């Protein structure tokens, strides 16, 4: 449907039967949709029906507006000869979507995602050494313990700020203007202050400007980097027509995962390696990249689809959520407060409540993110623990000076990039041509399967490492980790995009940034990390070497610890996740949710 030519769309319009030329209002929306659903229609009219459901207006008129690309307001679509945009009618206004959003403007947002992730991973890689003075004497001079606490505080703020950013983007100024704020008020100043503080004596005085450094990395950066992380993907996904380009949204989240991997690669082979020669040079490189992408984002302003905020409906949605928890309601018959069970049903106008049904459903959908994403919590445990095992293992392998464990992560990132490109350019188009649909749970299950193989291969390599050292006293090559990271790179493009895409679809249109924060920061980085910490605390003895060493960063200590038991545990959790998602009740539940939100999106618009 999305690949139709301009002529094909116009020719299809002639097959649409127009039963009522008057536009519909909210009261007869349901009747029109019921009639449309019972009337037979050929498959090629699916897109046209989708436009009708979303616009709520006349079928033929909606199609003409979607197909018309000229500027003469005659709806003939003849000027220029080639269709360049799609019209979208909603309660917030009319919006024009490009036929090729990626080329039109989304590539800028993907580049912004890449730069933000590069900064995030770059600071993670460089800060421990910089804070403790391992790179240069001009540093905060923290102890290892204080440096870890400092980084933990920064990480905690990065995971907390998105909820504040979500409220600002969804309820106050909109996602576009919130991006402008986080870029120019927080992200750029943070990058500049971090760079200035790292240059010896640049700001005057004979001591390290610790307060300047704290303002940059501890106060400004969480709002800058954390804000971009929360908004960027959501704002980019909104550049696609929600009906005619629905399948492109699925592919976009794959591209977002590819951009994430490329950002991690830039941090590893660019920022981290440059820091070995010059920390100020590395921080300056980061600041320049952030500045360039911010200007580029602003330069493309006129190309973005920026939806208007409907403040009254936003407030009513919050009101619906609050009223649902009360144990009373206002009786429409008696006009007084009466006891009632907590729940959303009593708030709906159709049940005598005071709030439109679609706004109550929007509040329900925001909470629905929690049980839906709760299905994937087991997966967050093994995929967030990858470096916990791979980095200590790398210290027990022989390798060139620069080809260390941190650099080896680029092997996984390279695999993610290659697999993501193949999925979007080859496999998914092939499935579309063959009319093969892979549901969300199965795509995540495929990723969980590859993650299981990842940990099993890691276990096999680890056993070889221990055996060779026990027999010969030698270390095996770090090249073995290339095989391990290959399967890790295979896993990520399968399970990360569908999880993020599902959150985007389930979240109501007014709260998509806030919904993204619930998914990434509360469900994945919150609950998942809490469970992981509990597991590691309970089984911490497996990480303790028995030769008296304080850590496992040497092969003598590593081979006395039982980290291989953890690898089998992570493989078991990944396998459980894959099998769990293949259960028919789980698959049906997710499909019902997806159908429910499709109807909800139609009602919202």
From TrEMBL:
Ranges of biased composition (kind: Polar residues): 11-23
The keyword Plastid appears for this protein: no
Entry superkingdom: Eukaryota
Keyword Transmembrane: yes
Acidic residues biased stretches: 45-79
Transmembrane spans: 150-169, 176-199, 219-240, 252-274, 280-300, 366-390, 402-423, 444-461, 476-496, 522-543, 566-583
Chain positions covered by the region annotation Disordered: 1-85
Keywords, ordered alphabetically: Membrane, Transmembrane, Transmembrane helix
Gene3D superfamilies hit by this protein: MFS general substrate transporter like domains
InterPro entries from the UniProt entry: MFS_trans_sf
PANTHER family from the UniProt entry: OLIGOPEPTIDE TRANSPORTER-RELATED
Protein name, entry field: ADP,ATP carrier protein
Organism: Skeletonema marinoi
């Amino acid at each position: 449907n999305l690949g139709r030519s301009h002529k094909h769309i116009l020719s299809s319009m002639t097959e649409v039967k127009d039963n009522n030329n008057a536009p519909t209002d909210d009261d007869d929306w349901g009747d029109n949709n019921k009639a449309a659903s019972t009337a037979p229609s050929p498959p090629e009219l699916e897109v046209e029906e989708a436009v009708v459901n979303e616009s709520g207006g006349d079928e033929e008129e909606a199609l003409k507006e979607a197909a018309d690309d000229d500027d003469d307001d005659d709806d003939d679509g003849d000027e220029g000869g080639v269709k360049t945009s799609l019209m979208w009618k909603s309660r917030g206004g009319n919006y024009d979507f490009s036929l090729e959003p990626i080329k039109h403007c989304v590539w800028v947002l993907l580049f912004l995602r890449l730069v933000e992730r590069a900064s995030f991973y770059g600071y993670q890689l460089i800060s421990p050494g910089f804070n403790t003075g391992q790179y240069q004497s001009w540093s905060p001079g923290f102890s290892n313990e204080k440096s870890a606490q400092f980084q933990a505080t920064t990480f905690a703020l990065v995971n907390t700020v998105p909820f504040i950013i979500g409220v600002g983007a969804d309820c106050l100024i909109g996602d576009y203007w919130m991006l402008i704020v986080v870029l120019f008020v927080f992200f750029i100043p943070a990058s500049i202050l971090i760079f200035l503080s790292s240059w010896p004596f640049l700001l005057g005085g004979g001591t390290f400007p610790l307060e300047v450094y704290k303002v940059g990395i501890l106060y400004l950066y969480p709002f800058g980097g954390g804000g971009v992380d929360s908004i960027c993907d959501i704002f980019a996904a909104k550049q696609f027509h929600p009906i005619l380009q629905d399948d492109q949204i699925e592919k976009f989240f794959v591209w977002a995962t590819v951009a994430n991997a490329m950002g991690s690669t830039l941090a590893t082979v660019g920022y981290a390696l440059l820091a070995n020669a010059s920390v100020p040079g590395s921080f300056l490189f980061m600041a320049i990249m952030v500045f360039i992408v911010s200007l580029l984002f602003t330069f493309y302003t006129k190309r973005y689809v920026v939806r208007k905020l409907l403040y009254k409906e936003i407030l009513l949605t919050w009101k619906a959520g609050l009223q649902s928890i009360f144990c009373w309601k206002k009786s429409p018959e008696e006009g007084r407060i009466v006891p009632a069970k907590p729940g959303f049903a009593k708030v709906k106008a159709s049940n005598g409540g005071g709030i439109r049904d679609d706004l109550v459903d929007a509040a329900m959908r925001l909470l629905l993110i929690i049980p839906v994403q709760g299905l994937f919590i087991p997966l967050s445990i093994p995929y967030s623990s990858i470096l916990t095992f791979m980095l200590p293992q790398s210290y027990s392998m022989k390798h060139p000076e620069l080809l260390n464990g941190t650099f080896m992560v680029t092997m996984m990132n390279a695999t993610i990039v290659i697999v993501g490109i193949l999925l979007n350019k080859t496999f998914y188009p092939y499935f579309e041509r063959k009319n093969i649909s892979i549901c969300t749970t199965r795509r995540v299950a495929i990723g969980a399967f590859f993650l299981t193989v990842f940990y099993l291969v890691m276990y096999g390599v680890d056993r070889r490492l221990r055996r060779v050292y026990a027999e010969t006293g030698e270390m095996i090559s770090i090249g073995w980790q290339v095989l391990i990271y290959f399967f890790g790179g295979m896993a990520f493009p399968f399970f990360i995009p569908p999880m993020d895409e599902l959150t985007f679809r389930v979240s109501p249109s007014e709260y998509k940034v806030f919904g993204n924060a619930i998914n990434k920061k509360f469900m994945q980085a919150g609950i998942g990390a809490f469970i992981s910490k509990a597991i590691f605390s309970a089984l911490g003895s497996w990480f303790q070497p028995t030769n008296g060493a304080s850590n496992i960063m040497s092969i003598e200590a590593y081979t006395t610890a039982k980290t291989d038991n953890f690898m089998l545990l992570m493989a078991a959790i990944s396998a459980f996740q894959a099998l769990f998602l293949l259960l028919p009740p789980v698959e049906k539940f997710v499909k019902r949710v997806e159908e429910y939100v499709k109807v909800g999106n139609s009602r919202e618009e």
